[in-house]
Amino acid sequence: MSTPDPYIALALQTTCDAVNADQTTEAARVRMAAAMARIRNQVIGSKRFIGQDVRLVVLPEYFLTGFPPRRLDRLARRDRGRLRRCGARPSGLRSAPKSRSTPFLD
What we know:
The protein has two helices and two strands, in the order βαβα. The chain has about 110 residues and is mainly alpha-helical. It folds into two domains: about 1-65, no CATH class; about 70-105, no CATH class. It has a two-stranded parallel sheet with strand order 1-2.
C-alpha cells in the first residue's frame, strides 16, 4: 500500500449571488456563469498565494444559486418565534413581506 501524496485544501469563503430574483432561466445561467468565472479567478489567486499544492477547494453550500427562499422563510419564522418567547426583538428586524421573501434588516 502506497502513501498518498500530501496536498493542501482550501476552504474558500466567497460571495453567494442568489438567482432567486431572476425572471428567466437564461438570466440565472448568466449569473451562475459569472459566479463560476469569479470563483475560478479566486482559486487561481489563492493557488498563487498558498502554492500549487492546493488540490481540494471547498465552497459554500449554495455558492451558485443562493439559499432557497422557502428555507429562509422557515428559518425566519423559527427565529421570530424564539424572540417572542424570550421577550426580545432586535430593533432592526421587521417581518417579511407576504411574498416568499426573506426578512429585511434596517
